[in-house]
Design brief:
CATH architecture of the largest domain: 2-Layer Sandwich
Order of helices and strands: EHEHEEHEHEHEHEHEHEEHEHEEH
Low-confidence stretches: none
Largest sheet: 7 strands, parallel
Number of domains: 2
Number of helices: 11
CATH topology of the largest domain: Dihydrodipicolinate Reductase, domain 2
Shape: globular
Strand content: 15-25%
Distance between the termini: 20 Å
Length: 338
C-alpha cells in the first residue's frame, strides 16, 4: 500500500459528470478516505445542490494550489491538467488524470487532434489495466484512457496485440455511439433535449481526439498507421453508455469460435471484461465498470464483426480511474467497484 495506512483522496474538477461519478465511488470505497472536492464555477455549493442523488454531504472548494491529500484525481477540461500536474508530482502526490493532456507521446499528434501544444515530455503511464497492469502498479502518476478509446482498444487488442501466426489485421472500420453525458456538463444548444430527442448524429468523423490514443496503444500511430483505421463517433439520446461496432478485415479467415476463445484467453485475468455469447446492451453495463464484448460474425473473406459496450462515466472514466488507483496502491483492482 506504498506506506499509506488509509490514503486520503481529493478530486480537482469534481462538479462535472465524471467528477460526480468519481465522488460516489470514492465515498463508498472501503480503503481510502475522501478528503476534499475542488471545483471552480461551483465552489461554495454543496454536492447535493448539484446532485441530489449523491449520498455525500460535502462542499465544493476553490482550488488555490495547496493540496494536502495523498492522491489527486483530476477531472478537468483538456488543457487544464497540464498546468497543475507538475506541481502535484513535485509535491510527491499520486496523480490520476482523466483528461487527454498526458495520453499521447507524440506532441505533433496532440496538437493536431487536441488543437493545443504541449511539451514533448508531458506524458504519464497510460493506464489501461487490462494491458498495462505492471506499469500501472509501479507508477505514481497515470493518464486514464478515454471512453471511446477504452471501448475500441479492448475490442481490438486480442487480435492485434496477441502474437498470431494465422492472421493479421489489415483494416478496422469502427463506429461508436455515445450517451450525451460524454460531452460534459456545459450547456450547448446542439445537446439540448429539443435537438437530441429522437435524433442521432455523427461528429468529428475521422478526426476524433481518441484516434491517436487508440492507434498508439495498439502499437502504431495516427501519422503512419500499420493498418487501415477509420472511426465514426456518433451521439444519441442516451444519458450514459458507449456502444461500439468494429468491422475488422483479417488477411485470413478465422472461425467465430476460435476468435471468441482468443478473446477469453486474452482477458482471462481481467475482472471487468466479459466475453459474451450474445451481443451486449447498454443496459447490461450501465452504472458498472464492465466492458462486454461479443464476437458477432466472421466471413470466409477474413471479415470479423466485434461489438463492445461500456458505461462512459464508469469504465470509460471514473470507474477505470479507481481501478487504476487500486492497482497503484496494491489493492485488489476490483475493490470498491463491484
Amino acid at each position: 500500500m506504498r506506506g499509506y495506512k488509509q490514503p486520503t483522496v481529493s478530486v480537482i474538477g469534481a462538479s462535472g459528470y465524471s467528477g460526480a461519478e468519481l465522488t460516489k465511488i470514492l465515498a463508498r470505497h472501503p480503503s481510502v478516505k475522501l478528503d476534499k472536492l475542488y471545483a471552480f464555477s461551483q465552489a461554495g455549493k454543496k454536492t447535493t445542490d448539484l446532485y441530489p442523488w449523491l449520498a455525500v454531504d460535502m462542499t465544493y472548494e476553490a482550488y488555490d494550489g495547496e493540496f494536502d491529500s495523498d492522491i489527486c484525481f483530476l477531472t478537468l477540461p483538456h488543457g487544464e491538467a497540464l498546468k497543475l500536474v507538475p506541481d502535484l508530482r513535485n509535491a510527491g502526490k499520486m496523480v490520476i488524470d482523466l483528461s487527454g493532456d498526458f495520453r499521447l507521446k507524440n506532441a505533433e499528434e496532440h496538437l493536431r487532434f487536441y488543437g493545443r501544444e504541449k511539451p514533448d515530455d508531458a506524458c504519464m503511464t497510460y493506464a489501461m489495466p487490462e494491458l498495462f497492469h505492471e506499469e500501472i502498479r509501479n507508477a505514481t502518476a497515470v493518464s486514464n484512457p478515454g471512453c471511446y478509446a477504452t471501448s475500441i482498444i479492448l475490442g481490438l487488442a486480442p487480435l492485434i496485440l496477441k502474437p498470431q501466426d494465422s492472421a493479421k489485421v489489415n483494416t478496422v472500420c469502427c463506429s461508436g455511439i455515445s450517451g450525451i453525458s460524454g460531452a460534459g456538463k456545459t450547456a450547448k444548444t446542439e445537446l439540448s433535449f429539443s435537438e437530441m430527442n429522437d435524433n442521432i448524429r455523427a461528429y468529428k468523423v475521422a478526426r476524433h481526439q481518441h484516434t491517436p490514443e487508440i492507434l498508439q496503444t495498439l502499437g502504431t500511430s495516427a501519422t503512419e498507421p500499420s493498418f487501415g483505421f477509420t472511426f465514426t463517433p456518433m451521439i444519441a439520446p442516451l444519458t450514459r453508455g458507449i456502444y461500439t461496432i468494429l468491422n475488422i478485415a483479417l488477411d485470413k479467415h478465422l472461425p467465430v469460435s476460435e476468435i471468441t476463445e482468443l478473446y477469453r484467453s486474452f482477458y482471462i485475468s481481467a475482472p471487468f471484461v466479459r466475453v459474451r455469447e450474445m451481443p451486449p446492451e447498454i443496459l447490461h453495463v450501465a452504472h458498472t465498470n464492465f466492458c462486454d464484448i461479443h464476437v458477432a460474425e466472421s466471413g470466409k473473406d477474413g471479415s470479423v464483426v466485434v461489438i463492445t459496450a461500456i458505461d462512459n462515466l464508469v469504465k470509460g472514466a471514473a470507474g477505470q480511474a479507481v481501478q487504476n488507483m487500486n492497482i497503484m496502491l496494491g489493492y485488489d483492482e476490483a475493490l470498491g467497484l463491484t
